[in-house]
Structure formats: structure tokens, C-alpha cells
Model the fold of this input.
Amino acid sequence: MSKILFLYYSQSGQLTEIVKNFAKPFEKSGDYSITYASIEPVKDYPFPWTGASFFDAFPESVERIPCEIKPLDLGDEDFDLIVFAYSVWYMSPCIPCNSFLLSDQAKRIFKDKPVITLLGVRNMWIVAQEYVKSKIIENGGKLIGNIVLRDRAENLTGIITISYFLFSGSKGRFAWFFPKAGISQKDIDGVTKYSDLVKNHFEKGNLDSLQKELVSEKAVKINPYLVSTEKTAYNRVFLKWSAFMLKKGGPGNPARKGRVRAFAFYFTFAILLIAPIKYIFFLIFAPFRFKKIKEEIRYYSGTKLKSNT
Done:
């Protein structure tokens, strides 16, 4: 009987539902031993968020500074397949999931094992996934597949609806003319079509071609504008702001409250004014970057790091 480990952290419960649905084809077959392991911070993050706690989590997310987590009770820690499910905070894997990736336990569990990443996100995940790829490889694992479930709302609309979800705890409509927040129930229920593919490839021992088929079934969709925006924002903006905030101490330190508030104002300004301007420039210059954009779509749809290609 093959053993499958589902590793995840779900703050709102949405990712738990995605994971449990993804596991259904394996559970129904009766040929698999399924282990669910929820990563637990010693001091958990609130949901719904408050404005202060949401923005205070920014520097540790960006700098990938781990929090203290509880060891997972996994028995012999020997699995035939690992599904690592995570959400994205500020273009990085959420702090609890990153904390696990940096742990000694992760080194033991991932070593020489095939790994699939399963993401539940709003729309930006490229920078986070590149980091996760590198950590899986450092821990001795082999990334064989990536599946991304995302909020399908248009960017600015999605910002409004996800903000309502994060600060109210409700996935209902913010107003009648807005869509429901978060990943749609249809996509959450439909994730089994991807786990069926994974199960089929796993049973045939044909894992090297898995990602190609997942991409053909739209398990990953690359938006070239968001790729460009993410890389620019993370490297040129987020890293500078996080360093500025960390100079005033760690999580919850009263000394950094002023800088946290300043970032909150900047963040709102950037979304409402800078992002639309950048989008216009992207459209203007995109025809001159056609070859580069095509290469980026191919690469970010895959599972290898650039250093390995």
C-alpha cells in the first residue's frame, strides 16, 4: 500500500477543503494510506485578520523568517508521495509553511521523495513558487508537479473581494455587483481532475511527464503581466520595505508600528495608482518582448529551477 502525505497550513479553512478534495481519488481507491498533517504554529495567526496583524506579518513573510512550529507526529516519516499545499503571503509561502520547509523534519521527510505543490492563491504566486522549488531541492526532494488554484476575479476586483474575506472571514459578496471572494467552489470541487492525473501517472510510474499533462489541463496558468509585476515588486519594493520595518524589531514590537502603518498606506497607494500605470506600460512594450514572454510562460509552467535547465 503506497503512503501519501498531505502537508499544509490553512488559516481560513479554504486550503483544507482543497486538500481534502484533492485526496478523494486516492481515498476512494483503497490502495493508499493517507496521512494529513496540518502545520501548527506555536502562536497561530488570526483569522479573520485585523489590519494591524495583517500588515505586521509583512516583513517576516518577505524575508522568509520562520516562526516556531510544533513538530509533526508522522510515525516513521517514510512516504511514497508528498503533496505540499500552501498559500502565499506577500509573494512568499505563508510563514508557517516556510517555517516547515526550513525545519530539520522537512529535510528528513523530503529526502529522495517525489513532491507535488498545491497552491491556493489570489493571483500572484511565481516568486513564492521559485523559492519553494529551491527549498524542496535543498531538502533532497524532487518536484514532479505543480497545481495552482487561484481567485479568477480581475486584479482590482480581486483585491476588494479578498480584502473583504481576510478582514471579515466571509467568502460572501462584498456587494451585489462583486463576485464571491476567494477561490470558487467550482474550482475547489473540480481539483479532483488534477489528482486523477497524478494518481494515474503515479500508478504507472510515469512521473516525468506529469507536469506537461497538468499544464495541458490548465492546472497552471501564467499571466506575463503578473510575472513582471511580482518580480519587480518583490525585489525593488518589498525587500526594501521589509528591511526598513525590521530595523524596529520583530513581530508585534510596538517600536515598528509607525513603519507598519506607513507601509499600509504605501501598499494601498501602489495598488490603486502605480499598478494600473505599470499595466499600461506593460501593454505598450509587450510586443517587443514576445520571445521573452513566451520563454517565461514555458519556464514558470514547469517544475525545474533555472539553474537546473
Observations:
- The chain has two domains: 2-221, 226-295.
- The mean pLDDT is 93.
- The radius of gyration is 19 Å.
